[in-house]
Amino acid sequence: MQEPEEKKIALELLETEQAYVNRLHLLDQIFYTELMKEAKNGKTVPEEVVKMIFSNISSIYQFHAKFFLPELQKRMEDWSCNPRIGDVIQKLAPFLKMYGEYVKNFDKAVELITVWSEKSPPFQELIADIQKRKVCANLTLQHHMLEPVQRIPRYELLLKDYVRKLPPESPDRDDAEKALEMIFMVAKHSNAAIAEMERLQNLWAVYQRLGLEDDIVDPSNELIKEGPIQKVSTRNNSTSEKYLFLFNNMLLYCVPKVIQVGAEFQVHLRINVDGMKVRELNDTQFPHTFLVSGKQRTLELQAR
Length: 304
Hints:
By secondary structure, the chain is an alpha+beta fold. It has helices at residues 5-40, 47-54, 57-77, 86-92, 99-119, 121-131, 141-165, 173-209, and strands spanning 223-233, 238-247, 250-256, 265-272, 277-280, 289-293, 298-302. β2 and β3 form a beta hairpin.
């Protein structure tokens, strides 16, 4: 007899989970444990660095090896009398939020591996030695570390497929649909964590270009647009190169620094967005000009 489609997908979920737990075992019990042991002996890198590279991989490994995989195995053994996995995945979903921390840390972890491999030959040698083992299947540490980042999207795809193939009268339909919704929310949570991290990194880079002025550095600001602009001087009919940063709450009018040591720009003026007005001008001598007026002052600017 042909296996029902939904059972095939549930079995695929179980098989990929077994392979995934092996990968987590390699990351936590081999790479992390051995690198940590050498770090404690003071031979390779500081212990803190190893902890930062592997983030919360131990919690993720324990959860999948001791809870999720055994629950799935039990389910698939009982499939003939209890064909369902939706409730198990519902129990799993809230714990997947701990991936947020791992995913957020991933780029930093990869960067640390590169930096310390150059700084510490014994560190690089130990990683290379582990990578030569059969269990690594000729793949790098970085490649194995990518697996947890891709795991939640994989659950989402498998579960979508599972729900699609379920017969309408299946006893697992309600649970499976609810589980899919929960996994979708976790994936969104994980993506939001990455987006927020990128936003803060970009914001910090902008603040560095501005010379880290105390009253400007604020993590809640959002950069909307930046770019060069010409300042029109009506007094002597000329323009000079300036630079604008538009945030959600302020417009920074800056002068590019000639000698770029440290900051790239000097903030000459700040106009609060609250109460700011922008008006286009019809100036034949200077096309594309507009007026920006705020409580602080008014500027006549020319765009490209």
